[in-house]
Amino acid sequence: VNFADRLAESVARKGSTLCVGLDPRIELLPPELVAGLKPGRAGRARAYERFCEGLIDAVADEAVAVKPQVAFFEALGGYGLTALERVCAVAAERGLLVIADAKRGDIRATAEAYAEAWLAPRDGGRPVADALTVNPYMGGDSMQPFLNACGQGAGLFVLARTSNPGAADLQEAMLADGRPLWERTAELIAERGSGLIGESGLSSVGAVVGATNPEAVERARELMPAQVLLLPGVGAQGGSASDLSAAFRDHPAGGLVVAARSVIYAWRERRGDWQQSVRAAAAELRQATPTAL
Amino acid sequence: VNFADRLAESVARKGSTLCVGLDPRIELLPPELVAGLKPGRAGRARAYERFCEGLIDAVADEAVAVKPQVAFFEALGGYGLTALERVCAVAAERGLLVIADAKRGDIRATAEAYAEAWLAPRDGGRPVADALTVNPYMGGDSMQPFLNACGQGAGLFVLARTSNPGAADLQEAMLADGRPLWERTAELIAERGSGLIGESGLSSVGAVVGATNPEAVERARELMPAQVLLLPGVGAQGGSASDLSAAFRDHPAGGLVVAARSVIYAWRERRGDWQQSVRAAAAELRQATPTAL
User: Fold this and answer.
1) Which of A14, A38, A67, A103 is catalytic?
2) Is the pTM of this model over 0.90?
3) Any residues with CB less than 8 A from the CB of B30 and at least 6 apart, and which?
4) How many other β-carbons are positioned within 10 Å of the β-carbon of residue B81?
């Protein structure tokens, strides 16, 4: 089934467009998950796995997707990648879509290998992730192996306009036609995604647009009418869910509001059980997202 | 020691600027390395490890560096990443610099985690790799954690102008000042790398410029005088080592000529022992590179 259609169905059923970022960092984990672990990478990977499984359990009814940040697992080498695979499987079992935030980008056989790593059925079963984030710098042909995977049910989120200050360096570089570079990226995404639009009217090829810049979200919606916009930067980075209504103007599943730190580390500022705090923060954010309103 | 200085010393000692790409693909491996292996990802990872260790043994006297393509290992999950770590350790033991071709790119804590994964000392020992390829789309701040690692002896190669046709889509997008976008990337690389120039006069922050486009190599040399240019695309992709002299104009270690398929699968078109064929292909290419001439 088309990824965008699966996402749209889940958004409709849950009344949520919340995507929770799984960004485990050893120095921020609940102490009870770290106590007694073996030192070194194997123990750290085990702690990340327990933390993420606890997060999935806490947010499963509030969110439609989780977005594990691959870098934090990759820092633990083979131990980390194996733990991440288990976390993704647990999320899928709990009915959450899994967006692997890897920002991969390469060409030909190399891009095919990345698509195989994340989006191809693994050992006759399901893929590690439902969707993957990718970087467009190498151009349209670098997207092709991932687009092929989208034809088999996978999803893609291509970086368009990111939420960091450095986005000004290249993404906002002014082109000869008077537009910033990222608008050309957006057109490339819309063009390449046009053949992968499902019954929902949405494409399996979405775009990453920073939630800290509501004007960019508005412009992205114009340039990419069929794209699901993955909107990171809500909460700790300063973006506000209520500023993102443009993303949802044409479709209730037109965007995914991503929060990581403000949800997964909510228990650091609240009292009581860490999972209860995470669940409460996720529920509050879900209520603040445009589709829920 | 500064990465560029280590590279320059190795180039001078070996009289070579050859970098061999380690791109293992199961369907292309020598049959004797595949025979008798367990099916599945564990067996494939073992075959990749044996192949790459054989390649390292064959090219150790001809090349100054190897460039493992992370994607092919990542496709095998935790098994693959563990095999890659072993391959990198073997290359380092044989005196080869290791450039992990991962094309990572992200911001803040996430970029720090990628830098930790590849460039930080592992378990009190050496890092997995000496240098890493990164993608500049997210801008200068996305490079910062990697630049910090360069201050500790690591190297970086930032994508500037790649060798694929799709490079035209964004890298060649014409800016309002009449130059293609990748030239702005080049300036960003030169600027961020200016604080990391070693005694050799070269910076630890290099750039990836496709060898299939000699005009771009010439222009890259002008815009990035202190950068080591990583030049993929020689051989199977159509680039010729003799066209790359601009890279080496100012310094014998001003470029690294990257060949993968034409060297590591040379035995598929030659007779006899596969490692002997690889060694012969590497020796021929080394002789054709400008520094050797």
Assistant:
1) A103
2) yes
3) B51, B54, B267, B274
4) 24
